[in-house]
Amino acid sequence: MRTHYAPLTRTLTMGCLWMMMWLMMPVAAAAITITGTITDENRDPMPGVSVLIKGTSRGVISNINGHYTLEALPHDLTLVFAFIGYETQEVPIQNRTTIDVQMKPDNQKLEEVVVMSYGAQKKRMIAKAARKTPPSVANVMSIVEDDVCIEYEMVAQPDFNTENYATVRENDFKSTASAPLSTFSVDVDRAAYANVRRFLNNGQLPPVDAVRIEEMVNYFAYNYPQPEGSDPFAVQTHLAVCPWNARHLMMKIGLKGREFDKSKLPPSNLVFLMDVSGSMDEPNKLPLLKASLRLLVNELRPSDRIAMVVYAGAAGLVLPSTPGNQKQTILDALDRLQAGGSTAGGAGLKLAYEVARQNFIAGGNNRIVLATDGDFNVGQSSNAEMERLVEKERQGGTAITVLGFGMGNYKDDRMEIIANKGNGNYAYIDNLQEAEKTLVKEFGGTLFTIAKDVKLQLEFNPARVAAYRLIGYENRLLNNEDFNNDQKDAGEIGAGHTVTALYEIVPVGAPDAARYAGQTDALKYQQVTRANTDAQDWLTVKLRYKQPDGDTSRLMERPVTGTPEAFDRAHNDLQFAAGVAAFGMMLRNSPHKGSLTWNQVTQMTEQARGDDPEGYRAELVRLVKMAAKMNHPTE
What is the C-alpha to C-alpha distance for residues 90 and 59, in angstroms, rounded to an integer? Predict the structure, then answer.
């Protein structure tokens, strides 16, 4: 009996010993998840704040709502919250799962930021606060979206800059007596705003030509009415006193594209054309590109199709046209991409258009999505050659959307041309939140055209308007005769998109009206007739557009009448759009900025924020304050 039970007894004894040893060991603390919201001194959400684990290279940045999430953390660590121009804060976790932080401005540290001049020898710009952070912490940037953390290691900026921007010469005032018509192509690109944000978040002022005011104004959604009847969009106008020159007026024209249920949009034939050249081998380029397109893939329906073309030293098809419900196949192809080689952009475009034609969907949304830093340097690479290529291909019904990435060698001018000539749109992706805004929240407006060749022409009444100035749209101006010419290409409007244009108007009788009227000699044969003297119209707005598959334009027309409102009583959308335009004029140091100060621009944008559920307008206010500090650190 004893012999039979001896092994079992020894086993039980050893088991008890192990159990006692295990119970005597210190219990490991369970990992916790930390969430929180970061706000500024006014309790407004702060996107882009670095949240790092002290002494490590792990961290995230806050999203557009100031929210952050860090998962699987021990309870006894310390978090470091840092942002240029604000005091760095170190906060122990201490078993908490929610840590909200209010950042405090630090003017002294902001003054020590080295502002880089564009196109010259540069120092890396870094706040004193960041210099106090160990290098192992300061060199990591992460992006949080839906509680998923994507980490990128930040690299030192190069000491050179080859970014290219088309020259923008601001519109001047025109005398109504000699030039009563103003004609331009409607545009809904928003790339300039995100690019300006990138510069400011990096602690530097943007180059003047990177600031395209109409794109900054159009980055934001406005509360415009839905269209009624058969027209694809509605037209709205407001008239108020100009905030930077009380002798003048400001007019806002707003267009609202018809919204569609996403499930009712036509099927898509999309070709991702991705730059995987050596210039894309940086954390804010190819890795961010891949993360961005993953968001778009998640929006695809079974009726949609995706193909992938890449280009570096040569172009190649890495994924044939694949149904949208085969998401894992698409994502696997995306994950395999790596950067290397030179940039055969022209060959890539040709191959992408060929693939799009092979899988063309009649009545569908046939579109190339080009993702690049624009640094084409092999083969067909000049702006003129690219322009001719996309102009030719758009006739076949394939449009193009351009997504820009990166810095240092960014070719803004080239990408803008491709989008404009290819019946498409252009966005700059500086973070994953911008990718979500462009490719998810504005999915229909980005990828689905509801009207093409959209043109505006305003006829000003010389009896009421002495002079006028279109704010922005300098590279969208048309000859007056182009308005009725259906062969002339113009802008496109997507589903649900809003388009805003602003004019500064000098009314007849204003103290300075004679100065603008005297820009040219009096015309011998033009007279103010009784008809326009009696009219109460300030002007008439005319709009032409074509259906996406049409060749003949349709005309919409409406007069603008009424008494201008005081600016502080004007519609909130006019006030906010004017504030964004004022921000752009200050960044450009515009000769037309009148009496504007940075404090006024801050007040304008703060007071007109209105309903801002996603925090985009709050972010603008933060950028205005940051730019103001860079221009006048002592204010």
Answer: 13
